[in-house]
Structure to design on (658 residues):
């Protein structure tokens, strides 16, 4: 996997040789982005089983799943992917180890391919919502790097551009990890989609200016009522968008929905290390001994969300009904 | 003057030997903060005249003022201080050069001392507004470093602490220049006032959490209707405070009022260099060739401002009347 901590200064690849390597890659954010984490976890399960031996395969499988599940708590796609692998594993009980291994590898590859197809569908469904001739504001990176390819929020933007719309992108830098500055701008440059970088605290100013036609972001987990957990700062952008009459869209696969949670209040929010805030690329930006808060995500209440774009269509309020309908089919 | 670009990693002092040195210091943000810029400009005028010679003193004086006025456009205290020096200079026409020099030096020193006294008065007037036992959120640095001493927003916090209130501070890091991380946290550490650093995009999350009792910020220019220009990101914090029922206070000296401007739409907003956004302490955080917007300030419409705290008292809406009364009275 490409090392997303080093981009855009260095394009380096990390090779994971064990499922523990994959878990470490997810935990340390070599790979990040809810759908990408899901795909990586599925690959990690397949890799773990490929290296596991009988007897006690069940115990080893449980340990593999548990290790991968304990990497990051917020993105539900991680648990969704592990669960999908577990169900397949259980359906294969009693089959020869070689068959189990081959089927799990095929399933992980299938999850990866499905994710790309899902992103394309999200893009098709969302492209119509993007106003022509205006700027699209996005936060963090919900692009190809955050998925198996194409992206959710950036997929919507890519599809709008492919549909002939004239749009440019404004990217929040997204402190502390700088996914916007490092990843979103880099991705858009490669696609020659015009992008302008701003610091997070400038988003309100430009939402007020009339330049922004809509906001599109990804999601790490969406509760049954449409509350959205996403990268820290998303809530602020949503409030500022609503205050200025700018539509706020969330683009995410169905696997990001967690209908077991009534509301976003129940979504666990990861707290990341202090050093992400006090240091930038190893350089201190605050005095020694500075106390820090570093929640990696926040929850945007459903009333700020204009629509949720999935591979099955566009859900609107009331989300309790529209999201359930979308899942049931 | 202490070099505010180097803090908190290095405590270095820059000696200004000419008025051009002072102008460069203001332009390059060796010194920043609206009241501090005003004091520095007054000192720069005095220094320039101390080194000027007859004949053509008037022309030299005009050049000194113009050079200092062309450093930064938004903070009105700069122009206010130059204007005050100019008026004194004009009143001294025909007096011996030695007298003019001595009077201008004395005036600049007087402006410095007045600024400290003003901040103490702002603190006294604002302390009662700070809720006891809660966190105060602040943005940028409106502290001792932004003034001749004590601070405006941080002066209110210091006065609340001195009055026996139990408050702690949450400081937005304030990208791109990181005044919050580098300066506000550093100042509060020296005063042993508990401070927690967050990235700018976390402010909304904590305003929603119920932890924040009030927001206090400084100002660079306040229009007649109470619209407030302040460090970029202030508008976002104000909207998020209002959305969550948290009072939003602006602390500033009367010299920050610009009653010649009907509204904040007329306040010139400085655009700073791209490299402030694309680089942190010299390290690139974005790909080469990244397009950037870098407005240094934004305007918070008066409807988000709970009160404006000055050395003469606390102004509330409607500001057109309350601010005018404060200046005249």
């Amino acid at each position: 996997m490409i090392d997303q901590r080093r981009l855009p200064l260095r394009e380096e690849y990390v090779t994971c040789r064990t499922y523990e390597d994959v878990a470490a890659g997810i935990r340390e954010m070599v790979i990040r982005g809810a759908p990408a984490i899901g795909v990586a976890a599925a690959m990690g399960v397949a890799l773990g089983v490929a290296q596991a031996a009988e007897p006690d395969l069940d115990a080893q499988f449980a340990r593999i799943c548990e290790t991968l599940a304990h990497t990051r708590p917020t993105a539900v796609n991680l648990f969704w992917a592990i669960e999908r692998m577990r169900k397949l594993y259980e359906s294969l009980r009693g089959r020869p180890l070689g068959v189990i291994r081959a089927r799990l590898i095929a399933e992980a590859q299938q999850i990866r391919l499905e994710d790309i197809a899902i992103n394309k569908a999200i893009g098709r469904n969302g492209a119509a919502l993007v106003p022509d001739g205006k700027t699209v504001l996005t936060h963090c990176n919900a692009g190809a790097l955050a998925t198996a390819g194409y992206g959710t929020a950036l997929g919507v933007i890519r599809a709008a551009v492919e549909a002939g719309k004239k749009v440019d992108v404004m990217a929040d830098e997204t402190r502390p990890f700088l996914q916007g500055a490092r990843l979103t701008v880099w991705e858009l440059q490669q696609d020659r989609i015009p992008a302008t970088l701003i610091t997070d605290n400038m988003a309100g100013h430009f939402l007020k200016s009339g330049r922004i036609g809509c906001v599109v972001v990804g999601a790490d987990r969406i509760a049954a009522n449409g509350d959205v957990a996403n990268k820290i700062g998303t809530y602020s952008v949503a409030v500022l968008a609503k205050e200025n009459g700018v539509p706020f869209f969330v683009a995410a696969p169905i696997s990001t929905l967690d209908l077991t949670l009534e509301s976003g209040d129940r979504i666990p929010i990861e707290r990341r290390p202090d050093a992400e805030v006090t240091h930038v690329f190893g350089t201190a930006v605050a005095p020694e001994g500075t106390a820090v808060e570093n929640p990696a995500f926040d929850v945007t209440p459903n009333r700020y969300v204009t629509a949720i774009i999935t591979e099955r269509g566009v859900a609107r309020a009331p989300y309790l009904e529209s999201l359930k309908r979308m899942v049931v089919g």
